[in-house]
Amino acid sequence: FLIGDTRHIIREAAKKSCFICYKLGASITCCETGCDRTFHLPCAPDGECVTQYFGAYRSFCWEHRPQQAVQARPSQDNTCSICLDTVENKISYKTMGCPVCQDARFHRHCIQRLALHSGIGFRCPCCLNQDPFMTEMLTMGIRLSKRPPSWESVQEVRPLGERQGRCDAGTCLCPEGREHVEEEGPWQLRLCSSCAAEGTHQRCSSLGNSTCSWECNTC
């Protein structure tokens, strides 16, 4: 975009209200012809909207988002193949499935987290299919990472089984360096509550003493 075009887009977005939170500044419009629903990107999950992070980066509202054609099976135990917690007994925005093996079921947030950590190794957690599965997940709004799997990069840094013991914050404020860790106080190390593959000093991520959990940028 040219500068003039960008300014015009910003002015137009400022006039539009998000159909989810009803506040102004909604810059995303559903790509379905004839649909004028607009929304903020952070509001998309609450409104069950889908943004495809490839090609033209198209976005769709809850009514016009792509739907999976995975069929429910009588033997399905309605358990997420990733976190092993219960999922809905039907395919929906929050509950997705593998289009290849038709058996795997998983929460949207679980498969999104797996996609970011798996990187170029992303595949179905059950049948291990990659290409058709990846294409389906992209279409359904799952963001993928082009980097190697996070567990491979972690193994390059430290031996397998060794606990993460350094600060991975963008800017480490500790005068003793990233490897310095204390039992209490501002240089206490907090591990990501989801992957435990990255850590941060309490002060480096502005965490309070009462903060119980922290998640890295990947999660």
Automatic annotation (TrEMBL):
PHD-type domain residues: 1-65
Keyword Cytoplasm listed: no
UniProt gene name: G2e3_0
Keyword line: Ligase, Metal-binding, Zinc, Zinc-finger
Name of the featured protein: G2E3 ligase
InterPro entries hit by this protein: EPHD (IPR034732), PHD-type_Zinc_Finger (IPR051188), PHD_PHF7/G2E3-like (IPR059102), Znf_FYVE_PHD (IPR011011), Znf_RING (IPR001841), Znf_RING/FYVE/PHD (IPR013083)
SUPFAM superfamilies tied to this protein: FYVE/PHD zinc finger (SSF57903)
GO molecular function, one term: ligase activity
Organism field: Machaerirhynchus nigripectus
Pfam families: PHD_G2E3 (PF26054), zf-HC5HC2H (PF13771)
Domain RING-type: 80-127
